Amino acid sequence: MGSGLYQVDFTKADRPRTWKYSARYYIDIVKQNGFPAGEDELPLYGHFRDDMMWSTATASYQIEGAWRADGKGLSIWDTFAHTPLRVSNDDTGDVACDSYHKPDEDVRMLQNLGVGFYRFSISWSRVLPDGTTAHVNEPGLRYYEYLVDALLSSNSTLPQITLFHWDLPQALQDVGGWENDTIVERFTQYADLMFSRLGHKVKHWITINEPYIFTNIGHGYGAAAPGISFRPGTLPYIVGHNLLKAHAEAWHLYNSTYRPSQKGIISITLNSDWRAFRGLVINTVLSQFQLGWFAHPIFVGDYSELMKTTIRNRSLELVCGRVWAGLGCGSVWVWVGLGVAVCGCGRGLAEVDVLLCSRGTGTVVDRAWLDSGSGWLKVTPFGFRRILKFIKENYGNPPIIVTENGVSQRQMDLNDTLRQHYYTEYINQALKAYLLDGVDIRGYTAWSLMDNLEWATGFAEQFGLYFVNRSDPKLTRTPKVSVQTFSTIIRCNGFPDPKSGHECLKPQPEGTSPASVHF
Ligand code: NOJ
């Protein structure tokens, strides 16, 4: 292969020339005199709605530690992480960030950041050691009561509680976990307890975090707890179905019994990728097998026709030997909690997976996309705006709270330029979705408040706004520079033109909690 922009055929006497694609590419550069920023890259100046809910998130197993403290029962993540070779470096959540013993420190970090909300999850087995309401572990419950009070008294950071962020009580797994449909009642009883004990102070509830990930990684690939991989063609669908029913039961319970007096809101967090460059058709298939798997039953009342027929046909072809289980499920949403930790991502060329088998499409990753500390996560801000618009157009313009968005790094980096870039670009795309596309965005949540246990990859992938020093027994937390980036966006409630020199853009003296000076 020669290095020319044109290929020359040396076997022919007249040496014919044929242009290569690189020639076209170069012609464009010459024509445009460089690389002018496209609409996607140009910053938009403006602000979000006045009551925008700025938040940051964590999850119980990833930060709490204290895995056997004060009567806590074991969860499937305790078991999984204590099984050799399941988690990188044999990391466990035994201590994690020790947040169980550091609620005040965590609250101070939130204050310093200036968020109005904090999304955290309850460890089901800390409150109900065997998963049932037969025995309520009061000391475990007290930790959450303390945290809620500390949040409310500190400048009023409002709690957003996730009831299930993947750490199922082991005792429930022992009787079949999410495969056994009695789990629906167990979950509803657990939700009932939490609404009754915390609901007079907590007004934002999320039933289940990212069922797609929990279902597939935990029950299809087996790379997360409970680590089951021997029935990838059926189990994820059964588990997904019970998760949907559990969400619906808890939602209705809250709606009829608690909402009238407690006046809160409740929803579910669904994750979604945006797949670019392969045309609308493929994106639709992928979205219906990911976001739509759970969103369609909730918004429309049943699984989508596309998903049902694709799975049925491929099962009949015996491509996957899959049992098709399409069941209806009616529950209405008030808002969608959208956890977008990744946009425009794919799992690479080696995608021979259970889903690929049933949905019949694969994905590739553009090598031009910026990498992160996680193999699956590429920095593609444009995808964020696209997926937000997709939700507006496909699910009747629901109010959206982004319940996660963030990026990982693998090395300790207090001046985390990648994360500063990531938050600036992604939030600016959310602003475009809000102002230009009319998407009803009510809130944005950064993942994560601090470096924590990134599931089966252990502590190696760090998503935190705060660095947690794991070599220090006190597990000290230090703000990374991205804390300033995110605080400034919160303080301004968006992006004023830098030329305006607006007050909100001015750096805040260290240690002060940033006053809100929205422009
Ligand atoms: C989504 C999950 O909810 C969270 O637990 C995880 O750490 C982040 N994505 C990053 O992978």
Largest sheet: 8 strands, parallel, barrel
Spans of 5+ residues with little confidence (pLDDT < 50)?
Answer: 318-357
Output the CATH topology.
TIM Barrel
**Terminal Cα separation, in Å?**
57 Å
How many separate domains? 1
β-sheet strand percentage: 5-15%
Radius of gyration: 24 Å
CATH superfamily: Glycosidases
Q: In CATH, what is the class? A: Alpha Beta
Structural class: alpha/beta
Protein name: Lactase
Family: Belongs to the glycosyl hydrolase 1 family.
GO molecular function: lactase activity
Organism: Periophthalmus magnuspinnatus
Written description of the protein model:
This protein is of the alpha/beta class. The protein has one domain: TIM Barrel. The protein is built from 17 helices and 16 strands. It has an eight-stranded parallel beta barrel, surrounded by five helices. Strands 1-2 form a two-stranded antiparallel ribbon. Strands 3-16 form a two-stranded antiparallel sheet. The radius of gyration is 24 Å and the shape is globular. About 8% of the residues have low confidence. Bound molecules: 1-deoxynojirimycin. The site of 1-deoxynojirimycin has 10 residues, from loops. InterPro entries: GH (IPR017853), Glyco_hydro_1 (IPR001360), Glyco_hydro_1_AS (IPR018120).
Explain the layout of strands and helices.
Blueprint: E1 6-8, E2 17-19, H1 21-32, E3 46-47, E4 53-57, H2 60-63, H3 76-81, H4 103-113, E5 117-121, H5 124-127, H6 138-153, E6 158-164, H7 170-173, H8 183-198, E7 204-209, H9 211-221, H10 235-262, E8 265-271, H11 279-289, H12 291-299, H13 305-316, E9 336-339, H14 354-359, E10 370-371, E11 378-379, H15 381-394, E12 400-404, H16 417-435, E13 441-447, E14 466-468, E15 477-479, H17 482-492, E16 494-495
Parallel strand pairs: 4-5, 4-13, 5-6, 6-7, 7-8, 8-9, 9-12, 12-13
Antiparallel strand pairs: 1-2, 3-16, 10-11, 14-15
This protein binds 1-deoxynojirimycin.
1-deoxynojirimycin binds at residues 59, 62, 209-210, 339, 341, 404, 447, 454, 463.
